[in-house]
Amino acid sequence: MAESDIEIKSAEPTAPAELVDEIERTRANLAQTIDEITDRVTPANVARRAADETKERLSQIDPLIGGAVALAVVSVTCYFVWRKARG
User: Fold this and answer.
1) What is d(CA 38, CA 31) in angstroms, rounded to the nearest whole number?
2) Which of 22, 44, 58, 65 is the most buried (most CB within 10 A)?
3) Using one digit for the tens of pLDDT, what is the confidence trace for 25-40?
4) Which of the pair, 57 or 61, is modelled with greater confidence?
5) What is the pLDDT, as a whole number, of residue 78?
6) Residue 66, SS3?
7) In angstroms, rounded to a whole number, what is the distance separating the alpha carbons of residues 87 and 25?
C-alpha cells in the first residue's frame, strides 16, 4: 500500500483553532500540489522538456555515425538531382 501524508489523530477532542490551523496547512499543501501538477502538464513545458531530451540524445551520438548519416543523406539527394537532370 502506498504511503501517504495522512496522519491518524487520536480520539481526543481538538480545539477549533487547531482544526483551523490544520485546514489552512492542508489547503496550502493542496494548492502547492496543484501548482506543481499544472507546471508539469503545461504544453509549453512538456514541449521544452521534450526538446531538451532530444538535444541531449543528439549530443550523445558518435560524430562518426552522425557524419555517415549526413553523407548518406547528401548522397541520396545528389542522386535524385542527377537523375532528374538526366531526364
Assistant:
1) 10
2) 22
3) 999 999 999 999 999 9
4) 57
5) 95
6) helix
7) 77
